[in-house]
Specification:
1% strand; elongated; mainly alpha; 13 helices
């Protein structure tokens, strides 16, 4: 449409020459293009309405997508900044349907897609963190985050989604349903209770089928889940016999044969306690969290370890839990794939 008409073609036959022969934008809807035009021609007072708790987030998302598509760089920056301001509650809570503590997985996914599309780091981090928290709390179904692009900044979300999906798999590798809400969550696998590790209270224990639309997993997702089961089982076998190491703190006079030895003995004992065993074997975070609760109140540790060593030991356990939680994605690398096609868990 930007070419100069040739001499043997009348200019009135060219696209954009008249209302009867407009420029055609294929693959675009009139409604989405109106949203783009509105932000171009609106007055400043009208644009300011987007930077309020009542801002139209649906329209803002469309504006972000359209300004990115047609390379309106300054308008894209304004739109994505306004979107972040609204959903981060800078001006007050947005409408409930858009609030990250209440919105559906589909809204989470669209907002994350826009953040990745526009390269807005704060928006990506904010949405990914809230989505991760709600998956752990079993408020949102993990299946919706399994196909999020795995890249720097999304590995924690994707790893958490695979982890919770693995815990929620039912008999015959049934992935459950797609509907969000704790009433659809499973808190048992194979008869072993699990909890919403690190993210709030678990739903009521149940292995009964839930009413809803059954989720469908791709072959690749199933392979990753099976690989995760194998990798997490091996991880637990190592962790249960290898207590987190900690440096000798100042003031401890009987460290190696006293504090470290007692810590190792108590660790192995608690790792096989009935409370720890209530969690599924692949629920490494659930088991570590339960161990932390038991170790914090353990009488032998209180009596045999110096206060400095006891604190250092618990901090080492906390660091181990954080390391596992932050790096979950790497345990779901497809072990059947070529090395070059396995999950990149950087970030």
């Amino acid at each position: 449409m930007f070419s100069i008409p040739s001499q043997d073609v009348h200019w009135q036959n060219e696209e954009g020459s008249s209302d009867d022969n407009p420029i055609r934008l294929y693959g675009e809807s009139a409604e989405r293009f109106r949203a783009l035009l509105s932000v171009i021609y609106d007055l400043p007072s009208q644009l300011q309405a987007y930077n309020t708790p009542g801002g139209n987030i649906d329209r803002l998302l469309t504006i972000c997508e359209m300004t990115n598509k047609y390379h309106f760089a300054s308008m894209e920056t304004w739109a994505v900044d306004a979107l972040f301001n609204v959903i981060s509650c800078l001006h007050g809570p947005p409408a409930q349907q858009y609030h990250l503590t209440c919105c559906s997985s589909s809204w989470m996914k669209r907002m994350l897609d826009v953040a990745l599309l526009c390269g807005h780091e704060r928006l990506r981090q904010h949405v990914a963190d809230r989505w991760t928290d709600r998956i752990l709390a079993r408020d949102l179904r993990p299946v919706h985050a399994l196909d999020v692009p795995l890249q720097t900044g999304t590995s924690k979300l994707v790893g958490t989604a695979y982890y919770v999906q693995l815990l929620e798999m039912g008999p015959d590798f049934d992935p459950g349903v797609v509907e969000d809400g704790k009433q659809y969550a499973r808190s048992q696998r194979g008869g072993h209770p699990t909890t919403a590790t690190g993210g709030g209270a678990a739903a009521a224990a149940s292995t009964e089928p839930r009413t809803g639309t059954r989720a469908v997993l791709t072959r690749e997702q199933k392979q990753r889940l099976l690989s995760g089961h194998w990798s997490l089982t091996r991880l637990w076998e190592r962790l249960r016999t290898t207590p987190p190491a900690f440096e000798r703190p100042e003031g401890c006079t009987y460290h190696q044969r006293g504090c470290v030895s007692t810590w190792a003995h108590v660790w192995k004992d608690v790792a096989q306690s009935p409370a720890t065993a209530r969690h599924d074997g692949v629920d490494v975070l659930g088991r570590l969290k339960t161990m932390a609760e038991q170790l914090f109140l353990h009488a032998e540790l209180a009596n045999a370890l110096s206060p400095q060593c006891q604190r250092a030991a618990m901090l080492a356990l906390k660091a181990t839990m954080t390391e596992v939680k932050e790096g979950l994605a790497k345990y779901f690398s497809d072990l059947t794939a070529d090395e070059g096609h396995q999950v990149d868990d950087r970030g």
